[in-house]
Design goal:
The structure holds 2 protein chains of 2 kinds. By secondary structure, chain A is mostly beta strands. Chain A contains 1 helix and 17 strands. In chain A, about 5% of the residues lie in helices and about 45% in strands. Classes of the chains: A mainly beta, B mainly alpha. Chain B: Immune regulatory cytokine.
Chain lengths: ~200, ~150
């Protein structure tokens, strides 16, 4: 029987298609407390006798969080639970309240750096993992009706967007797109640079 | 890429991604196929390949096959390997997502079941029931790439 209290404050942190289960530590004087995490997808509930599947990387771990990204790889409702163990004693399972579906992940605009290399308009984007890509919009200032678009995969360090006309000013903004759930973030702030000779003058 | 694509199954159009299913399967394919001793028999391709199914019948056979895997196959594929079990769970839950979208075509009558697709599906069930359930389930799971290749 359970001598340990079950973990409390169990919640999900999900940003940009990376999902973490977190909980408050269980304190036992003079003992090392370890935790084990299990998940249950809609399939397990409906077709596999409500079975639970352990996450081996988070079995008997002292950490109070678990990266569940690889196991939450379908857009269905998942249940998650965690229990504490210290020596031979173990707690009841503490469960996440409700379900988690990855379609609710928070998507943030990408961090981008726009530079002008002579007449070349270049953009660098922060790597945000394989599940995401970036939709980059760029236009010549004053020609807002002719916005062009490039779709870049995350991790493409730098991209050449366009060859600029001498002395012209070009602006860029971007959003993150999660392909598996077909959702996008808001746009990043617009950044503008001027062509011809400015190695990296950012006019905001 | 892991992005959604529009799949055309006859009159049925479905936006979905098979990339994650394929990634999950690729991670365990060798393990699963090593559990299938009878390599000369096929569940999906005997006696005729799925590629023989005509376009109007594609939606029906696809919908039936997703039901087949959800209802009959995955539940008999539990292994002693935690990693394999987690990947099978990923695939099974992804199948539920896709099946839901295919079901919408059924409701909109874009998924007509002709004689040919029913014949083909009956043959697949006969192949499946001709083996003991665990062997049949493992063989069917090991042939998932045949289904994915045909769908794509």
């Amino acid at each position: 029987d359970a001598l340990l209290p079950a973990p409390q404050n169990i919640s999900i942190l999900s940003t940009n298609m990376k999902h973490f289960l977190t909980w408050s530590p269980v304190i036992v004087q003079g003992a090392t407390v370890r935790y084990s995490v299990e998940f249950q997808g809609e399939y397990e509930r409906e077709y596999a006798n409500e079975s639970w599947i352990p996450i081996s990387e988070c079995s008997l771990s002292t950490a109070t969080q678990c990266d569940i990204t690889d196991d939450i790889s379908a857009s269905v409702a998942y249940k998650l639970r965690v229990r504490a163990q210290a020596g031979a004693a173990s707690s009841q399972w503490g469960s996440l309240e409700g379900f988690f579906n990855r379609v609710t992940t928070a998507l943030t605009p990408p961090v981008l750096k726009v530079t002008a290399d002579g007449c070349h308009l270049l953009v660098e984007l922060q790597d945000m993992g394989p599940a995401l890509q970036f939709r980059v919009l760029f236009w010549r200032k004053g020609h807002e009706s002719r916005v062009r678009q490039a779709v870049l995969s995350s991790g493409s360090a730098g991209a050449h967007l366009a060859t600029m006309e001498d002395g012209a000013e070009y602006c860029v903004r971007a959003q993150t797109h999660a392909r598996a759930i077909d959702r996008s973030s808001g746009f990043s702030p617009t950044q503008c640079v001027r062509a011809q000779g400015d190695t990296s003058v950012r006019l905001v | 890429t892991a992005g959604n694509r529009i799949f055309h199954f006859g009159a049925c159009k479905v936006s979905m991604s098979t990339a994650e299913i394929r990634a999950g399967f690729t991670a365990i394919k060798a393990n699963i196929q090593s559990r299938d001793p009878i390599r000369t028999l096929s569940i999906l391709s005997h006696p005729h390949s799925l590629h023989k199914v005509k376009s109007p019948d594609r939606c029906c056979i696809t919908h039936h096959l997703f039901n087949f895997y959800v209802d009959k196959v995955f539940k008999h594929c539990t292994t002693e390997d935690s990693f394999v079990n987690r990947k099978i769970s990923s695939i099974a839950n992804s199948f539920l997502s896709v099946r839901r979208k295919l079901g919408q075509c059924h409701e909109q009558n874009n998924c007509v079941c002709g004689e040919e697709s029913m014949e083909k599906y009956k043959q697949i069930l006969a192949n499946y029931e001709g083996l003991n359930v665990t062997s049949a389930a493992m063989k069917s799971l090991g042939e998932l790439d045949i289904l994915l290749d045909w769908m794509e």
